[in-house]
Amino acid sequence: MNKLNNKGSVALEATLILPLFIFAMLAVYHIGQIAIAEATLYEAGAETAEYMAEYAYVGEGIYLVPGFVFSEYIDNEDLVERYVDGGTSGVNFLGSGFLTEENDIVLKINYSIVLELPFLPRLCKNKTVTIRQRAYVGFKSDDDGEDIEDDAITVYVAENESVYHVDSNCSHLNISVFTREKNQAQTDGYSSCEICGSRCGDLVYVTEDGEKYHSTKSCSGLKRTIYQISIENVGNLSCCSRCGN
Predict the structure, then answer these.
(1) Is there a contact between 226 and 138 (Cβ–Cβ < 8 Å)?
(2) Using CA atoms, how far apart are residues 81 and 86, in angstroms rounded to an integer?
(3) Helices marked H in 55-190 — which ranges?
């Protein structure tokens, strides 16, 4: 009789404890996924701030950049859609700006994390992440670090280029990135990027005047560092045929 009673108590304990155990494991799983979603947003924010820093020379228009490029840097959009209230559309950048005196980009990423568990009300917590990035203005000195005189004629050069540009908005400097099927890109003469080419899927990223295809827009091979220098220091560089005429 005691044995039967013991068996009954074990079954009752298991019935009570097992749902609690499953609930706890489910909570731990979702908390882990939320941490990954937040890390994904931070990484996308860091890439966006880097992009803003590179194009800080355009001036006030830099404020509009996050709304256009942030979502392109999100690696796991499904996770963000699941745990961020409103998904990528629920992220805003209020409070972001360009600090002129310090030449810093300040990007503020505002969003709300949501957690939905069985038998519990919907949990929501507002989050703000601030990323500070030094802007790549580079307009106060030439390649030798010397100040450029106010009345000096200045031009623009990019790394590893053989020409200089008279217009900072030249299309050779502000490259446009396009998506293309990998097979078509190879047919058109593009070869794999040494940095990110091994991760390419069916769709890749290319530029009009480039020679490589890329797996992601955030690849450093698609980014350019632009310098403003005195025309007296261009050396053997020739003038750009597109903006120099």
Answers:
(1) yes
(2) 7
(3) 65-69, 77-83, 182-187
**Contact by Cβ (8 Å): 39, 121:** no
- Considering only CA atoms, which of 88, 85, 92 is closest in space to residue 125? 85
- List, in sequence order, every residue forming a beta bridge with 229; answer none if it has no partner: 155
What pLDDT is attached to residue 110? Answer: 92
DSSP state of 119: T
Q: What tens digit of pLDDT does each residue of 68-127 get? A: 788 888 888 888 999 999 888 889 988 887 665 667 888 889 999 998 877 778 888 999
Which amino acid appears at position 65 of this protein?
V
The tokens for 127 are 């989050």
Residue among 54, 48, 50 at smallest CA distance from 137: 54
For the chain, helix (H) and strand (E) counts, in that order, are 4, 11
| 68 class by beta-carbon count within 10 Å (0-12 exposed, 13-18 middle, 19+ buried) | exposed
Strand ranges in the chain using DSSP code E only, listed in sequence order? 97-99, 104-115, 123-134, 154-158, 163-164, 177-181, 191-192, 203-207, 212-213, 226-230, 238-239
